[in-house]
Design goal:
Chain lengths: 892, 121
């Protein structure tokens, strides 16, 4: 068979794919393609999991490693059957949040973080590039097989040229059908349909080769089984660890690979399709794996020593001169490779354009760029550019790697890189506490370990990492050896890399999340992701309805102010070709209004407020939560403000009080000084006047004696006054040293009465005591308490005013305190004066009777305070009555 | 006929001192020690000169002076104001209310005598 014919068939097949994709796109656009969104198409599209690596590489893997190839099928099967609920949640979240890629999912969940989106995009590109190169390699190798068989042995330049042309063809196809229009949902009906066709082709091709090998070359099932039994492949050589590790890697990759996410989540039409796929896809995988072992065994048996087992699927039919079957097999491999490259390229291009190119373009534009209409063309341009860039990267990797490594090895390296996003995805869906900081840290650590332990060494010895580094670590640091991290070596390099990258990735993710605080948006998104099943409606999407435009205007006026709101409404009406202020309530208008309102009340509140006015639009729990979140922030802010203003009020009040107190004190001080001045000047006046008289010779002796007596008395009065003033000053300033000791009350009263100058016989003032009650001891300063008693007794003697003045002392023991009342039989003190008497310089009667300066009771009050007791006027006792209360024991 | 001076003061010793000085100079000295009834006393037997203390029980010297100046029958009597609070404010207030002379305690006897003589004209 001529090589040119093969090229012709391949081009014909490619043209068929173009036509199928084109028709599907057209029908989808017309909305007449119900079969397009069928579960069968969905299941078949998932088959892009089976790439050229599976088509060719599984046989090669079986030939080299025996049954290990089964793990690559077991992983996805386990996910589909056992982790169906996980996929379901992933799909739900993807649809509810209108996620466009795996980078978008993670970025959106962790607070719409751009850096995180970039990080995931970078991981995806690094992990996918070798894989794309792998597909190119398989296509050109299979072409080389045919070239070889038709007598033209291909050199390296031929391989490179072929790879370039394949890349160009794939770029063209992907651009044509992947970026025809900018669908917000990122759905590509044409491509998905073409991929479904390819899925059928590759399955049929592999089964056809298998059937030929079993029945055409070997002679039936029994002979084949016997052959397998005899072959070394059937000997179980697997370590359980590697087996489990590979199942884990392939299972995780099934979820984490960007292209799988694209078909499984982004292109998903209905959640129910997943239910069908959960049993249909494992069957597909079973069919794909059924003939791997026979083909490998027969290939090892039949083919000459040293032939590449990765190409047995092609070379076996060719060796049996079954050229038609070989071509079919080639188309199967071609399908596997191209479908993977197309979808992976779309997925990566979406990420690159959405998370890298467009953000850069936006930040380089001045304000108003979003207003102009060229955003669409920019985004589509970015997509196309990204598609070409991804394929160029794949091609370059193919050129530099030289196509040397075994296919399966590259595939596993790629898988391990891609699954670094697994902890972040699981956290995103199931753990509200997961944060952006944790996800970023985990991803970075995982990426770094994967690159160091697996990706960089995969380029081969001395390519990037030198053999000395491999053997003894960078700069001789042994515990950093790429294949023996932390000094734990001797493991399978793949398992070693998977273990360390995934465990540290997850650990750092958890630690980072626990020790960082999520932003409000992160919390909100976390709630919407984790509780996606409670969220009934599609998020943030109104259906057109007949809500009264006027209601919206009224509400908007409240929020934006009348002028601004009317301007918005008028402009919207004008845009619709209407005059006046009431535009039709179209979804576009609602969205615009929501944006306007969001500027003043926050997005969630705006959404919920409009929802109240739109019939049929229910407010979901999440909407309310979002409102609550915003409200909480506002409340927090306003309560902080309130606290601040309360504090200021309090400070102002304190200042005002302090000021009033100072003013009052100042007035008091003036009055006090004025009083002292008066009290001092009065006796001084007498002294001066009489001493001048005495200097005069006109006074007789009797007068001289009398005046000298007055001078003496006034001098004593001055001394007393100064004593009292000093005493009061000491008491008030707390400079008093109390000499407390135990003393009996009777003794105290005896002392006080005699000191007050009261005669025991009762002449002048008769004192009635109650001796039986006085038999009590107390711990106090006897001199000070006595001073109080003396004051009260001599006051009674001075001011009682009764014809036969009497003073009764009444003692009560209250347990903790002792109460002594002094009641005289005079007229008492009038109510308005009762409060005054304890103030300084308050004398109620004229000066003749008062011996002192009016400081006595003020001093008494201060003394009693020092003694932890009190002295007060006791009204309603007939005469003047004072009550002294003093503690029985020293409280200290 | 001896001129009459009324001393309105509540400190007995000061009353005694002023009485002694003025009597010896030939004055007829009357004394009154209660603020409240002072104006009535003045009106009943108007003196030639009044010596008026500020701090009095019942009614302050300022109030007595104000009422005195408001009463046409006695408003012309010269008043020597005595105060123990010798602040400028007190002097200003006294002069504003119509005190003829102002002295702060303690005073010299000669000064009192001189002032009272001067007031009697």
């Amino acid at each position: 068979m001529s090589f040119n014919l093969l090229i012709f068939v391949a081009l014909l097949y490619a043209a068929l794919l173009f036509v199928v994709a084109f028709i599907a796109d057209q029908r989808a656009k017309l909305g007449r393609a119900r079969w397009l969104g069928s579960p069968a198409i969905y299941t078949l599209s998932l088959s892009i999991y089976c790439t050229a690596w599976t088509f060719y590489g599984a046989v090669g893997n079986a030939a080299r490693n025996g049954l290990e190839f089964v793990t690559i099928y077991l992983g996805p099967t386990l996910v589909m059957v056992g982790w169906w609920w996980f996929l379901r949640k992933l799909v739900w979240v993807g649809r509810a949040q209108r996620v466009t890629s795996i980078a978008d999912l993670i970025s959106s969940r962790f607070g719409k973080s751009t850096p995180l989106g970039v990080l995931v995009t970078v991981i995806a590109i690094i992990a996918a590039t070798p894989y794309i190169a792998l597909q190119l390699q398989s296509v050109v190798q299979s072409l080389a097989v045919f070239a070889d068989s038709s007598g033209e042995a291909w050199g390296n330049s031929d391989l490179n040229r072929a790879a370039l042309w394949v890349s160009i063809g794939l770029a063209l196809f992907t651009i044509l059908f992947g970026t025809r229009n900018l669908d917000a949902n990122e759905k590509h009906h044409g491509i998905v349909t073409a991929i479904a066709l390819e899925a059928i082709v590759k399955l049929c091709a592999l089964v056809a080769v298998g059937v030929f090998v079993v029945w055409g070359m070997t002679g039936g099932v029994r002979d084949t089984l016997a052959l397998i039994d005899a072959s070394p492949i059937s000997e179980w050589e697997q370590s359980g660890g590697r087996w489990a590790g590979l199942i884990f890697v392939s299972a995780a990759a099934f979820v984490c690979l960007p292209r799988m996410f694209q078909v499984m989540v982004v292109e998903n039409e209905q959640e129910s399709h997943l239910a069908t796929a959960s049993w249909a896809f494992p069957l597909y995988l079973l069919a794909m794996s059924l003939f791997v072992l026979p083909i490998a065994v027969v290939g090892l048996e039949v083919m000459p020593e040293g032939s590449n087992p990765d190409l047995f699927v092609l070379t076996l039919p060719l060796s049996a001169s079954q050229e038609g079957l070989a071509v079919f097999s080639f188309l199967g491999g071609f399908s596997s490779a191209t479908s993977m490259v197309i979808v992976a390229t779309i997925a990566l291009a979406t990420m690159v354009s959405n998370h890298i190119v467009v953000p850069i373009w936006l930040s380089s534009q001045r304000e108003g760029a979003l207003m102009s209409g060229d955003v669409r063309s920019v985004v589509i341009g970015a997509r196309r550019f990204s598609i070409v860039a991804v394929l160029v990267l794949g091609y370059l990797y193919f050129r530099t790697s030289g196509g040397g490594s075994a296919l399966a090895a590259i595939g596993l390296v790629s898988f391990t890189g891609a699954i670094q996003v697994l902890p972040a995805i699981i956290g995103a869906l199931f753990w509200r506490g997961a944060t952006r900081v944790g996800a970023s840290a985990g991803l970075t650590v995982g990426l770094a370990i994967w690159a160091w332990t697996l990706f960089l060494p995969s380029f081969g010895p001395n390519a990037i990492i030198t053999e000395s580094v491999m053997a003894s670590g960078p700069f001789g640091i042994e515990w950093l050896r790429p294949q023996a991290l932390f000094g734990i070596g001797g493991q399978d390099p793949l398992l070693h890399a998977v273990f360390w990258s995934m465990s540290l990735n997850a650990l750092i993710f958890v630690i980072g999340s626990v020790f960082s605080f999520p932003t409000p948006l992160e919390r909100l998104q976390g709630a919407q992701f984790v509780n996606v099943f409670e969220n009934t409606g599609g998020a943030r999407n109104w259906t057109p309805s007949a809500a009264a435009s006027e209601d919206l205007l009224i509400m908007s006026q409240r929020l934006l102010g009348a002028t601004e709101a009317q301007k918005v409404f008028q402009q919207a009406a004008e845009k619709q070709g209407k005059t006046g202020y009431l535009p039709d309530v179209t979804p576009e208008f609602i969205q615009q209004l929501e944006r306007e309102l969001a500027g003043s009340v926050g997005a969630a509140t705006a959404h919920a407020m409009i929802g109240q006015l739109l019939p049929g639009a229910s407010i979901s729990v999440e909407d309310l939560m979002a409102v609550a979140d915003e409200a909480a922030q506002i409340m927090e802010y306003s309560s902080r403000l309130e606290a601040k203003s309360r504090e200021q009020e309090r400070t102002a009040r304190q200042l005002r009080q302090a000021n009033e107190k100072l003013t009052a004190l100042s007035v008091q001080k003036d009055a006090f000084l004025s009083q002292i001045s008066h009290e001092l000047r009065t006796p001084m006046t007498s002294i001066r006047a009489f001493s001048e008289i005495l200097q005069d010779e006109n006074a007789d002796d009797a007068q001289r004696i009398r005046y000298a007596g007055i001078i003496h008395n006034e001098t004593m009065r001055l001394t007393r006054l100064l004593d009292d003033l000093l005493d009061l000053s000491f008491l008030e300033n707390g400079q008093v040293v109390l000499n407390k000791r135990r003393i009996s009350l009777r003794k105290l009263l005896n002392q006080a009465i005699s000191s007050a100058g009261i005669n025991a016989d009762g002449a002048g003032l008769k004192i009635n005591r109650t001796p039986q009650d006085e038999d009590v001891s107390l711990t106090t300063d006897p001199d000070r308490l006595s001073q109080v008693f003396i004051n009260l007794i001599s006051n009674a003697a001075k001011y009682c005013g009764a014809d036969a003045p009497e003073l009764s002392s009444i003692v009560r023991n209250l347990g903790a305190d002792l109460q002594i009342d002094f009641v005289d039989n005079g007229e008492g003190i009038s109510v308005e004066n009762q409060t005054m008497i304890f103030e300084k310089f308050s004398r109620l009667t004229d000066h003749r009777k008062a011996g002192g300066a009016g400081l006595g009771l003020a001093i008494c009050r201060e003394i009693m305070q020092r003694l932890d007791g009190s002295v007060s006027y006791l009204p309603g006792q007939g005469g003047a009555a004072f009550r002294v209360t003093v503690p029985l024991s020293d409280p200290e | 006929m001896a001129k009459r001076v009324l001393v309105i003061e509540d400190e007995p010793n000061i009353i005694e001192a002023i009485s002694f000085i003025l009597s010896r100079d030939g004055w007829t000295v009357h004394t009154h020690s209660d603020g409240e009834t002072a104006n009535m006393r003045i009106k009943a037997t108007p003196p030639d000169v009044i010596i008026l203390d500020v701090m009095l029980p019942g009614k302050s010297g300022y109030d007595i002076l104000r009422d005195l100046r408001a009463d046409q029958d006695v408003s012309g009597i010269p008043v020597l104001m005595l105060t123990a609070r010798g602040q400028t404010r007190d002097r200003e207030l006294a002069e504003e209310l119509g005190a003829t002379k102002f002295m702060s305690k303690p005073f010299s006897n000669a000064e009192v005598l001189e002032n009272v003589r001067g007031l009697a004209g």
